[in-house]
Write a structure and sequence with these properties.
Blueprint lengths: L1 H15 L8 E2 L5 E4 L6 E8 L4 E8 L5 E13 L8 E6 L7 E3 L2 E2 L2 E9 L3 E8 L4 E10 L5 E9 L6 E5 L2 E6 L10 E8 L2 E5 L4 E12 L9 H17 L2 E3 L3 H16 L1 E4 L2 E4 L10 E2 H8 L3 H4 L2 H15 L12 E3 L4 E3 L7 H16 L2 H20 L25 H20 L4 H22 E4 L2 E4 L14 H4 L6 H8 L5 E2 L2 E2 L8 E2 H13 L3 H17 L9 E2 L8 H15 L2 E3 L4 E4 L9 E7 L6 E6 L5 E8 L2 E9 L4 E4 L2
Antiparallel strand pairs: 1-2, 2-9, 3-4, 4-5, 5-6, 7-8, 7-13, 9-10, 10-11, 11-12, 12-17, 13-16, 14-15, 15-17, 18-32, 19-20, 21-22, 22-23, 24-25, 26-27, 28-29, 30-31, 31-36, 32-33, 33-34, 34-35
């Protein structure tokens, strides 16, 4: 059996690892592109989202050079029966508008794709023709920013020396769904083609065709989107995300992967009857929130990006969880679903209160808004008290499962839950001091954190497979990827043994960390936590080495351009919160930003030896807009400067590895 497991691991690595030469290249505009060679075939999938719609595009180039596209489109607010976690109306469209195009009286029969580009849209540049005549074609595919439509532009250009006659049909294809399968009855799905009809193209001229796929409730007006206007709105959003929280390092791959992480992390927010709800996506998880994906993973990141929609979705999610607080201290739901009208808790207590307390306290500090912090504080208090009541005889937090929901064993008490509770206690001390909470309460939190840390060492600290690290639960004797968690919350007692275990052949593969040694399963979330923790604890060279490998594989390899959920489950879906975890490698790992107040933070930068400087600009946390620049003036020394509004508000020379406390004016 052990031999079989090793073979599966090797097979998975060979199947999903990037090629020796990356397929994709980074453009000067921050896009990535694949230049298609003759006879080259490749297929991939990518998710893109807007406030009312999401689409997974399964695209590819065949050996004959033709392009294939199948669109899976999800409407989160068109609810189906039963109205559960997965009840967002979803349909696939394999429609090919090129079949409706005539060129000099003949159908288009040939296509040769030259280039595929990803830049927040999917762009494809091709040569199309009928054996006698040809045109240049550019496709652009993207979701509307705020409408329930996926849009496509087909731009035909005459690059020849003579006029051509182009004919493109117009019309609608309307589908009425089964009313018994919809919460609101029948839904109307409209595929609309807006073509120019018959048109003579002179040399150098272009013509456009627009295609939209829209979904509506009965009685809603069916409009005709201004597709070029929708494209400008999508590009404006992508530009906003790219122009805030700007990473500058000598490594173009990491910089670009960070930019793409901001896109995927921020776009997957849906406007529902329950308000703005960030959702994982993946054709499965929409109009719903989770204690891990939203509260723990992505919400602490949004203040740094300064995206108002993201911040509002985070505050809304904490309000939704707060609605389930109770005097009996019965567990909160793991997930609030169906636009906020129902909940799910099928895995029991996953340590959800610790997840929420961790994320809510970090969010409130980084957000910098006293008003929001006061709103969130009762939820933090409740979750901390709930977690305290779950302490077992050994003084660590008991739970029924963890965030993997019994896919792998987690025992009656797991390392992840106690680590999150520990960090939440420390954050609550910082936040409570800002809000003027009773000194006795904050002293109790400090003491509880100290006791918990000691108890975690006694209960989880162990020799596992020869490594001085942690067992994930009592009785666990196989290495698990989540042994990285203590490194992300400032517990470095078993740093070296843990890092050695994480990057040993037992856990590390070409795809990052295996969930459990000897298995073939990997979930990016633990890899992303591990990379953040490795930087945070000062193993900078190892951190940047593996971050470079991971980033190149995810951004430029065979499945691009985002962090993924897992394999084999979900076929490496581009779930959104994982991109938030990638971005936090930079903010909390490389730059070591740890919020300590509504206008203050500790900064422990980790500058790799091969880099002379790095900067993080337009950081929007703490209700501010500031830059951090880290430079190495001499070996073993760092110069840290913080500027706000063009003025230097903090500047200091320190030893490498030292922390500085920054108070913004």
């Amino acid at each position: 059996m052990k031999k079989l497991c090793i073979c599966l691991v090797l097979w998975a690595g060979l199947l999903y690892a990037g090629p020796a030469e990356n397929r994709w290249r980074i453009g000067s505009d921050g896009s990535i592109s694949w230049t298609v060679k003759a006879g080259e075939a490749h297929a991939d999938h990518i998710e893109m989202s807007g406030l009312k719609v999401s689409t997974v595009l399964r695209y590819g180039v065949k050996e004959d050079g033709s392009f294939s596209l199948n669109r899976s489109i999800v409407w989160p607010s068109l609810r189906t029966v039963p109205n559960d976690t997965h009840a967002s109306l979803t349909r696939r469209f394999a429609f090919d508008p090129l079949r409706q195009v005539g060129l000099n009286g003949l159908s288009l029969m040939e296509e040769k794709v030259r280039e595929v580009v990803l830049d927040g849209t999917l762009r494809v540049h091709s040569l199309v023709g009928n054996g006698r005549d040809s045109l240049e074609l550019t496709r652009v595919v993207f979701p509307s920013a705020d409408k329930a439509s996926v849009c496509e532009i087909y731009r035909f250009g005459n690059t020849g020396g003579s006029d051509v006659q182009l004919e493109i049909a117009s019309g609608e294809i309307v589908t009425e769904t089964d009313p018994s399968q919809g919460v609101d009855g029948s839904y109307r799905l409209v595929t609309r083609i807006d073509g120019p009809g018959a048109r003579r193209l002179r040399p150098g001229e272009t013509a456009e065709c627009f295609v939209t796929y829209s979904g509506y409730k009965s009685g809603e007006s069916v409009g005709s989107p201004d597709v070029n206007g929708e494209l400008q709105a999508r590009r404006a959003l992508v530009r906003e995300w790219r122009e805030n929280l700007v990473l500058e390092t000598p490594d173009t791959v990491i910089n670009t992967m960070f930019d793409f992480a901001k896109i995927r992390g921020a776009e997957s927010i849906y406007d529902t009857k329950g308000g703005l709800m960030h959702g994982p996506g993946g054709e499965a998880y929409y109009a719903a929130i989770w204690a891990n994906d939203q509260a723990e993973y992505i919400n602490p990141f949004f203040p740094f990006l300064g995206y108002d929609t993201g911040n509002r979705s985070a505050l809304n999610s904490f309000g939704m969880f707060a609605a389930y607080m109770n005097d009996r201290y019965e567990k909160l739901p793991s997930s609030i679903i169906a636009e906020g009208t129902d909940f799910w808790g099928g895995a029991g207590d996953r340590g959800d209160a610790a997840m929420i307390a961790y994320g809510a306290s970090r969010y409130a500090l980084a957000r910098g808004s006293r008003e929001e912090a006061e709103q969130i504080w009762p939820l933090i208090e409740w979750c901390l008290e709930y977690s305290r009541r779950q302490l077992n005889e050994a003084g660590v937090v008991a739970s029924d499962a963890d965030e993997l929901e019994n896919r792998f064993p987690a025992g009656p008490a797991n390392l992840c839950t106690s680590s999150l509770y520990y960090d939440a206690l420390n954050s609550a001390v910082f936040l409570g001091a800002e809000l003027g909470k009773p000194a006795a309460q904050l002293t109790a939190y400090r003491k509880e954190a100290r006791r918990l840390r000691e108890n975690m060492e006694n209960y989880f600290g162990a020799e596992v497979e020869g490594f001085h690290t942690y067992r994930y639960y009592e009785g666990n004797d196989i290495l698990r990827s989540w042994i990285c968690i203590p490194l992300t919350v400032g517990i470095y007692d078993r740093r070296q043994g843990t890092i050695d275990a994480l990057f040993s052949p037992r856990l590390w593969t070409e795809n990052g960390l295996l969930t459990q040694a000897g298995s073939s399963t990997f979930w990016d979330r633990s890899t992303l936590y591990a990379l953040r923790g490795v930087f945070a604890c000062g193993e900078t060279e190892k951190g940047v080495e593996y971050l470079e490998k991971y980033s190149a594989a995810r951004l430029l390899g065979e499945h691009v351009p985002y962090a993924i959920e897992a394999w084999p489950e979900g076929n490496q879906r581009h779930l959104s919160a994982e991109s938030g975890l990638y971005a936090r490698i930079v903010t909390e790992g490389m730059f070591g930003i740890r919020p300590t107040g509504l206008r203050s933070f500790v900064c422990t930068p980790r500058l790799p030896r091969s880099w002379d400087r790095m900067a993080l600009r337009r950081i929007r946390a703490f209700e501010s807009d500031f830059d951090i620049v880290v430079e190495r003036p001499a070996p073993g020394r760092l110069h840290i400067s913080v500027t706000e509004g063009g003025k230097t508000v903090f500047e200091k020379h320190v030893k490498e590895g030292d922390s500085v406390s920054v108070k913004l004016p």
